């Protein structure tokens, strides 16, 4: 039974802002329709690139892990591919936060509407709305916390964010199917009304009866004012907003801003977040503008190793005694057996160079760095994999943090730019950048460019 007590949230009279209305909500919804679709696609692309924790390891086999059916061999060209897709994903997600919050604010009366379900279709809409709101808040919150390197949710971010995205997007699609036609009609109706007013004004300008012309303009002005301030002429059609899904209040307070002004405010907030985030992905002079990004600002140091670091050797639990020239050995295994190589032995192998960036799941990236080391496909040939090299399983010395182990696909191993890097920018790797040896692969997520490499296993994992 409908509750008309204006003191209760279930009553339309409880929500008194004159800004709420179908047109305002529709514009925000159409922006989110495009933006969230791009977010979902780039998010899936990111998981295709490294598939973390969807099975016991980031397994490279398509079909592994629940909902991992879409996985494919991640390409190595162009070499900045992951830098672009993940930078777009993170930057767009942060930029859309004001739009999402404004959209939730605009439809909050519907969350309290009674009865909970008037029909089966209405019940499905309410369920999709609840999943949409809950899923949206969860996805954006976990994403922002991960970007800020301050993730606090129990369990691994990667599967929670991944499976949460599927639930959220399923609700998003269901809601879009139900609401996009209404949103498009609302936007078109607003444009038709504006065109009609302009046409009416031109017709009045041609009339010879000045009195009627002035009366028409005054009446038109009153109608325009009522419409702009959320009046019942447009949104409620005189029925207290019932035709507009209960968004228009029957008891509006005096407006302090127009709906158009509110949209400009939301857009300005999004532009501000864009300007203070995007520099971490683009780099160069714009990096100094990335005030909201942990890896924004200038490079964290000077010299050849003075570029962004996600986790330090101390954080990863690297013992310097294990990485010294006498102690460290790289174990390489394949169908031809196992070999153990010191760093000096690796340096006597043919060395090659690649100019590649590091791009992280948090959205930050470096400029191209000049890496030098042994090609992965040469190491595969060393243990019996001549010709087309197989998949590769990499293990690190690190004791703390995710991605102590990582899997690379055969096409990544075969690329001549894929290296077991020993130098960067003409100097030995620093401990924080993976000394004595690290992986560097074109277009790969930073987490697959394993540091402090201890073992390489070529072939079936």
Detailed description of the structure:
The protein is α+β, with helices and mostly antiparallel strands and 461 residues long. It has 2 domains: 12-275, no CATH class; 313-458, Oxidoreductase, molybdopterin-binding domain (Sulfite Oxidase, Chain A, domain 2, Alpha-Beta Complex), CATH 3.90.420. It has 12 helices and 10 strands. It has helices at 22-50, 81-95, 97-111, 120-147, 157-205, 210-228, 259-275, 279-282, 313-316, 343-347, 376-382, 410-414, and strands at residues 330-334, 337-341, 352-356, 369-375, 392-396, 405-408, 419-424, 427-428, 438-440, 453-458. The strands form 2 sheets. A 5-stranded mixed beta sheet has the order 2-1-10-5-6. Helix 5 packs antiparallel against helix 6. The longest helix is centred in the middle third of the chain and has 49 residues, at 157-205. The chain starts with 21 loop residues before the first helix and ends with a strand. The model is unreliable at 56-63 and 220-244 (pLDDT under 50).
Q: What are the segments in which pLDDT stays under 50 over at least 5 consecutive residues? A: 56-63, 220-244
Beta-strand share of residues: 5-15%
Gyration radius, rounded: 29 Å
**Count of runs of 4 or more consecutive helical residues:** 12
Order of helices and strands: HHHHHHHHHEEHEEHEEHEEEE
Give, in spatial order, the strands making up the sheet with the most strands: 2-1-10-5-6
What would you say about this model in short?
The protein folds into two domains: 12-275, no CATH class; 313-458, Oxidoreductase, molybdopterin-binding domain (Sulfite Oxidase, Chain A, domain 2, Alpha-Beta Complex), CATH 3.90.420.10. The protein is 43% helix and 10% strand.
């Amino acid at each position: 039974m409908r509750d008309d007590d204006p003191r209760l949230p279930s009553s339309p009279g409880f929500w008194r802002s004159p800004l709420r209305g179908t047109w305002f909500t529709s514009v925000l919804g159409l922006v989110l329709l495009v933006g969230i679709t791009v977010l979902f696609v780039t998010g899936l692309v990111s998981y295709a690139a490294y598939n973390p924790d969807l099975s016991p390891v980031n397994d490279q086999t398509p079909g592994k892990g629940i909902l991992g059916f879409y996985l494919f061999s991640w390409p190595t060209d162009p070499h900045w591919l992951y830098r672009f897709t993940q930078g777009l994903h993170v930057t767009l997600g942060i930029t859309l936060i004001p739009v999402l919050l404004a959209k939730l604010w605009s439809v909050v009366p519907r969350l309290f509407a009674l009865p909970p379900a008037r029909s089966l279709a209405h019940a499905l809409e309410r369920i999709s709305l609840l999943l949409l709101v809950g899923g949206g808040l969860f996805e954006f919150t976990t994403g922002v916390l991960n970007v800020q390197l301050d993730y606090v949710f129990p369990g691994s971010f990667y599967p929670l964010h991944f499976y949460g995205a599927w639930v959220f997007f399923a609700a998003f699609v269901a809601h879009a199917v139900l609401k996009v036609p209404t949103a498009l009609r609302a936007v078109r109706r607003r444009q038709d009304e504006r065109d009609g007013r302009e046409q009416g004004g031109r017709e009045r300008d041609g009339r010879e009866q000045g009195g009627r012309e002035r009366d028409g303009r005054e009446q038109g002005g009153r109608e325009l004012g009522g419409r702009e301030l959320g009046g019942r002429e447009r949104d409620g059609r005189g029925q207290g907003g019932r035709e507009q899904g209960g968004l228009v209040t029957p008891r509006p307070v005096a407006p302090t801003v127009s709906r158009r002004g509110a949209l400009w405010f939301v857009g300005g907030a999004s532009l501000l977040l864009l300007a203070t985030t995007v520099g971490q992905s683009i780099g160069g002079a714009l990096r100094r503008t990335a005030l909201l990004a942990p890896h924004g600002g200038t490079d964290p140091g000077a010299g050849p190793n003075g570029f962004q670091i996600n986790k330090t050797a101390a954080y990863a639990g690297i013992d310097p005694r294990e990485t010294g020239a006498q102690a460290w050995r790289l174990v390489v295994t394949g169908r031809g057996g196992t070999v153990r190589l010191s760093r000096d032995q690796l340096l006597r192998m043919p060395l090659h160079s690649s100019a590649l960036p590091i791009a992280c799941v948090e959205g930050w990236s470096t400029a191209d760095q000049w890496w030098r080391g042994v090609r992965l496909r040469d190491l595969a040939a060393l243990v019996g994999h001549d010709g087309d090299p197989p998949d590769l399983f990499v293990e690190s010395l690190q004791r703390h943090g995710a991605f102590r182990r990582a899997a690379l696909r055969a096409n990544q191993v075969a690329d001549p730019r894929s290296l077991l890097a020993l130098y960067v920018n003409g100097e030995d790797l620093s401990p924080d950048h993976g000394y004595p040896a690290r992986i560097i692969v074109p277009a790969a997520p930073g987490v697959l460019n394993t540091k402090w490499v201890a073992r390489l296993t070529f072939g079936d994992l």
